[in-house]
Specification:
The chain is of the alpha/beta class. The chain has 7 helices and 8 strands, in the order αβαβαβαββαβαβαβ.
Amino acid sequence: VHELAPTGMYEFIPALTRLLRKEKPTHVITAFPDIGVLVWASLTLTRSYTKWIHSADNTHSSVAWRYGYLGRLRSRAENFMTAFIYKQSDAIVAVSNGVRNEILENYKVSPSRVKTIYNPVIDYSELLPISRDRLDKSRQVKIVTLGRLVKQKGVDVLIEALATLPGNWRLDIWGDGPEYPNLDNLIRRHGLVKKIHLRGYTPKPIEILREADIFVMASRHEGLGNT
């Protein structure tokens, strides 16, 4: 593992350029538009014949649009960088056919350069047995959601929805991220501190899912949801 920019992104291109010259890799794989542009610059400086593959793991559609003036500016910048990367890279890997179709429609890329490779899935069916009689109205229903606490994951939507739900239930939110304080405020504003709990990061998601009655994914958009 090489940490290319420990004190600032200004270190990234010189560090990667040195690494490319030293290792002479046959392939480089990138994700995220800004990193892709930096890698392109490094490959250009080294005049490398390394094959460059860019991975598209999320939707490009309008649901990913950021709000506010700075958000719109950033979205346009990302779209410009994405179009540049798709033109310059040797191949593109999409996480789903939906993402692949979006790339072909919006960026006019040759279909032969875009391949779909799905996220791997481990069969947890034996660890997560499905029981039809678990939901007993006489006891509290345990609801669980898992994921990064970012706007994309829609946890705020889930909280707003549950604020209208009567009955004996509890929601455990597992994950961490920049939306944590906003979600905490939203829970308090609805007076749900005794029913909705921000649990933080967990290294044991399967155990948590096994104990849950209901799992909910409320994402606003996904390339192909791992959860």
